[in-house]
Amino acid sequence: MKKKKNVRTIIRQIVREEVAMAIHEVITELKQPIKSQPQPQKKIAEKKTFTKNSVLNDMLNETASDGSWETLGGETFDSSKMNQVMSSQYGGMMNNSSEVNADAMIASMGENPNSVPEKVKDNIFNKDYRALMKAMDKKSGK
């Protein structure tokens, strides 16, 4: 019984010492001045009228004055990098493949590809809709 009391007092003493050291470290950190980098001043741009919608106009003016859009992705994109932008966004469409992976498409919709019958997959994903589109264009007068 006496050994347990001795162990308890030793543990309490060690905990007190550790807490005292941690508090001392926190206090010294709080006393040190905070080093911060000065924020660059934002440009004040005159408001332009882009649209008649005031909310949309405010958003467009805010975006235009912010300037962070100029270096999206860490670099400036201009017309010389259009191929890079287009291939990263629309690369799947540019490979001239009309084949659609029905299983991957169904899985991306959160369904089990094995639960969808093959007939449904063929009718939806591999159907040629050109005739339907021509009929719609003809009906609309285009």
Spell out the blueprint of helices and strands.
Blueprint lengths: L1 H30 L22 H13 L15 H13 L7 H7 L9 H8 L4 H11 L2
Condensed summary:
The chain has six helices and no strands.
Listing every helix as H and every strand as E from the N terminus to the C terminus, the arrangement reads HHHHHH
Distance between the termini: 98 Å
Radius of gyration: 33 Å
How many strands, what sense, and barrel or not for the largest sheet?
Answer: none
Portion in strands: under 5%
Mean pLDDT: 78
Shape: flat
Count of runs of 4 or more consecutive helical residues: 6
Tell me the structural class: mainly alpha
Quaternary state reads: single chain
**How many E-type strands?**
0
| Number of structural domains | 3
How much helix, percentage-wise, in residues? 55-70%
Q: Stretches where pLDDT falls below 50 for ≥5 residues? A: none
Description:
The chain has 142 residues and is mainly α. It folds into 3 domains: 32 residues; 51 residues, no CATH class; 45 residues, no CATH class. It has 6 helices and no strands.
Question: Which structural traits does this protein have?
Answer:
142 residues, mainly alpha, 3 domains, 6 helices, flat
